[in-house]
Each structure stands twice: as structure tokens, then as C-alpha cells.
Design brief:
The complex is a heterodimer of chains A (114) and B (113). With 114 residues, chain A is mostly beta strands. Chain A contains no helices and 11 strands. In chain B, the strands form 2 sheets. In chain B, strands 2, 4, 5, 9, 10 and 11 form a 6-stranded mixed beta sheet that branches. The chains are: A mainly beta (114), B mainly beta (113).
Chain lengths: 114, 113
């Protein structure tokens, strides 16, 4: 039973480029959450998605960031025109559709903007 | 505004000792309180969790104590081992949004041999 899969594990982008981060939830999980962790800080909620729906994007920056969770395929966190301040670890978590859905995290994608 | 405050920021404990990490929250709507363990370069791993209708929960060497009236909860690691050296995060969430977690800032625990 594979856990939450994120790729790539490491991503280097130059300022102004686009970054695409992928997350495949655990089998049977239909809720996906994205978090950002800056160096030496805790995790900050960004967005909560279900299949084809954004449920809560209250933690997403207003510009350059977007997320989707299509009917088929992984969830994607997209950062356009990256800046050095976007350098962070981005984690995806998933939880089941019903019941006490414990959130399980992936290994993260470490984005470095140079 | 940080909704979950965690202390201490770091902790050094000898092997066999007890590690205690404290968290306090503001929002009384929180009803799910998990603790996560994170090793360098890895994702957070769920350690143990509690609901507010329970004052204590124990799993192996890990115990959560919960004080609803004080809006505080804590993690106790008994018989601490070098392999427990990691960063520990408390968190809280509301209702059906189990995965929308408010995290504390984290506590780096170092267990010396």
C-alpha cells in the first residue's frame, strides 16, 4: 500500500520560470492538502482539494500560485514566475473521504529558486 | 497570528529521560489534535492524536495529555531514545477538514546517548 507520492523530490528553477509539483494521494484517499514549509519553520496550510474541486484555498498566495486535482491523475501545485522567496519544501497530505480522516504526508518537494 | 503556540523551541534530553513538549491553542472550535514527527529531509509522520473528549491518550512510549479548560495539550516521550531525535510538531484542526491543520512552530528534540 503505497503512501502519498510526491515528485519531483528536488526541483531547481531560475527566477521567472514555472514550477510544477505533483502529488498522488494514498489509495482510497480523495482529499488532498498542500502545505509549505520554510526553513526552520512549521508547516503552513495552502489549499485543500477534492477531485475536480477546490474546497479551501485560504492559504494560497493571491498571485502566481494555483492548484488542481483532476478527475484522473495527480494533484498539481503550480507556481508561475518563481521568485527566491518561493524556495521551500512543499508537502502534500491526503485523507480518506469519510470517517476520521487522518492526514498522511508525502516526502515533499524541495524547491530551490536560483 | 499563530493559532497554535508550541514550546520549547528545542530540547536536549539524556537517553532514558522524559521529553515534554507543550502546545496551547486559541480557537475553541478545534476538535482534533495530532502530533507529527519529522526527520531531516523527510515528510511529517503522524505519531499520535487526541480528541477533546479525552484527557489522555497513550501509545507505547508516547502520551498526549489534554486540558480542554486551559486550551493546552502536551506530548510526553518516555524513556527517550537517540532514534527519537527529530522535530516534533503539534497541530489542530476543525470538524470535517481533518487535513487542514494549524501547526505549531516545532520543537527540535535531541536525545544524547
Amino acid at each position: 500500500n503505497a503512501g502519498v507520492m510526491q515528485n519531483p523530490r528536488h526541483l531547481v528553477r531560475r527566477r521567472g520560470q514555472e514550477a510544477r509539483l505533483r502529488c498522488s494521494p494514498m489509495k482510497g484517499h480523495s482529499h488532498v492538502y498542500w502545505y509549505r514549509q520554510l526553513p526552520e519553520e512549521g508547516l503552513k496550510f495552502m489549499v485543500y482539494l477534492q477531485k475536480e474541486n477546490i474546497i479551501d484555498e485560504s492559504g494560497m498566495p493571491k498571485e502566481r500560485f494555483s492548484a488542481e486535482f483532476p478527475k484522473e491523475g495527480p494533484s498539481i501545485l503550480r507556481i508561475q514566475q518563481v521568485v527566491r522567496g518561493d524556495s521551500a519544501a512543499y508537502f502534500c497530505a491526503s485523507s480518506p473521504r469519510t470517517g476520521e480522516g487522518l492526514a498522511f504526508f508525502g516526502q515533499g518537494t524541495r524547491l530551490t529558486v536560483v | 497570528q499563530q493559532q497554535v503556540k508550541q514550546s520549547p523551541q528545542s530540547l536536549i534530553v539524556q537517553k532514558g529521560g522524559i521529553s515534554i513538549i507543550n502546545c496551547a491553542y486559541e480557537n475553541t472550535a478545534f476538535d482534533y489534535f495530532p502530533w507529527y514527527q519529522q526527520f531531516p529531509g523527510k515528510g511529517p509522520a503522524l505519531l499520535i492524536a487526541i480528541r477533546p473528549d479525552v484527557s489522555e491518550k497513550k501509545e507505547g512510549r508516547f502520551t498526549i495529555s489534554f486540558n480542554k479548560s486551559a486550551k493546552q495539550f502536551s506530548l510526553h516521550i518516555m524513556d527517550s531514545q537517540p532514534g527519537d531525535s527529530a522535530t516534533y510538531f503539534c497541530a489542530a484542526s476543525i470538524g470535517d477538514s481533518w487535513g487542514k491543520l494549524q501547526f505549531g512552530a516545532g520543537t527540535q528534540v535531541v536525545v544524547t546517548p
